[in-house]
Amino acid sequence: MTTDVAVDPLLPSLVRLPVRVQGEAGLPPEGTQREDVLAAEVPVALVFNGISHAVMMATPQDIEDFALGFALSEGILDAAADCRGIEAAAVDAAAAGLPEGMPGIEVRLEISTRAFERLKGRRRSLAGRTGCGVCGVESFAALDLTPVPLPAPDWLAQVDLPTVLRGFAQMPPRQRLNAEAGAIHAAAWATLDGTVTDVLEDVGRHNALDKLVGRLAREGRLGAPGFVLLSSRGSHELVRKCARVGIHAMATISAPTAMGVQMAKASGVRLWGLCRAPRGVLYAG
Question: What residues are paired with 6 via a beta bridge?
Fold first, then answer.
């Protein structure tokens, strides 16, 4: 089983700041000074064969998983083997041209010639934002809303409500960053009996999913029977990412969007939403 928190992150994932708390029972009218723990959010530049492609705002943890997962779920790479190497390094604010106290991370990926030529031919510029998967596209066509349908595996019906809820029940103790700071999404991988094996966290729900995809790909588990659990709504972009890398089933705590359901039906992804025990809604599949 893999660990869920990076042993040696490039930058801290949590930031402690002095704050003044007011309005709490038992406090004087002027409040009191305390230390608050907040989620870190830093710009992460993704550079493919020396060419900068995107800058995403992300939690500085599991960055190599994030970079590989992004490349796979965005169709830059067809398989993990198309990535020849990944190097990540922290960049101080001055060197990155960022405001003081706001460092960044640069991730350099060496990818196959075929993948790089295809990347250069794509006219898509991503302006990084947490929680937004289509920021910066140049036209409607660039949204890429036509998925290739996945063949239904014979085990798909095993991803039923009891199994999904069993998985969600295991997530909170492993959402370590969110327990301290809040405001952090999680993407988890569960086997067909509902056992959660991996939980990846990030301030952006898309980033959390990309980290999970990258983790599975790096360990040769992408394509294995199982399903994704997400502490978010079921947007079309999350469904599309799953379909693109061959993930057949996903479940979300919040509701899906109408386009998310359309995308799931079109791509053959089994989609559960509003999964809060003892209830859940099967929207597709």
Answer: none
Rounded-to-5 percentages of helix, strand, coil across the chain: 30, 30, 40
**Tokens encoding 149:** 């349908």
74, containing H or E segment: none
Q: Which of 37, 54, 44 is nearest to 102 (CA)?
A: 44
Q: Which helix (H) or strand (E) holds 210?
A: helix 205-218
What pLDDT is attached to residue 147?
75
* Pair of tokens at residue 43: 């710009």
Q: Do 235 and 257 touch, CB atoms closer than 8 A?
A: yes
Instruction: State how far the Cα of 42 lies from the Cα of 175, in Å rounded to an integer.
Output: 19
Amino acid identity of 94? A
- pLDDT > 70 fraction of the chain, expressed in percent and rounded: 89
Residues with a known catalytic role:
132
- Reported pTM: 0.90
Q: Alpha-carbon distance 197 to 76, whole Å?
A: 26
